[in-house]
Design a protein that fits this description.
CATH architecture: Sandwich
CATH class: Mainly Beta
Radius of gyration: 14 Å
Distance between the termini: 33 Å
Order of helices and strands: HEEEEEH
Strand order of the largest sheet: 1-5-4
Structural class: alpha+beta
Bound molecules: zinc ion
Number of strands: 5
Number of domains: 1
Shape: globular
Strand content: 25-35%
Helix content: 10-25%
Number of helices: 2
CATH topology: HSP40/DNAj peptide-binding domain
Largest sheet: 3 strands, mixed
Length: 74
């Protein structure tokens, strides 16, 4: 079943980078402009839900709340 997920995800990402970045942020609300350059896009604001993470629909970068990951080691 994981294989199936991976295949559909790969299909979705074909127009994007093969390996999306994961970016740690400190706020539930983040802005993304693709980092400029070839991958740049108009700046958008993204709100995290209860998952404490959100994926930019433009560039597929994944933003993860920093405190959500830090709590593991506490
Ligand atoms: Zn983006």
């Amino acid at each position: 079943m994981l294989e199936k997920q991976r295949q559909s995800r790969k299909k979705m990402n074909q127009a994007h980078a093969d390996n999306p970045d994961i970016i740690e942020v400190e706020d539930h609300k983040v802005s993304c402009d693709g980092g400029g350059g070839a991958l740049g896009h108009p700046r958008v604001w993204l709100e995290m839900g209860e998952d404490h993470k959100v994926t930019c629909p433009y560039c597929d970068r994944e933003f993860v709340l920093k405190s959500a990951t830090a709590q593991k080691s506490a």
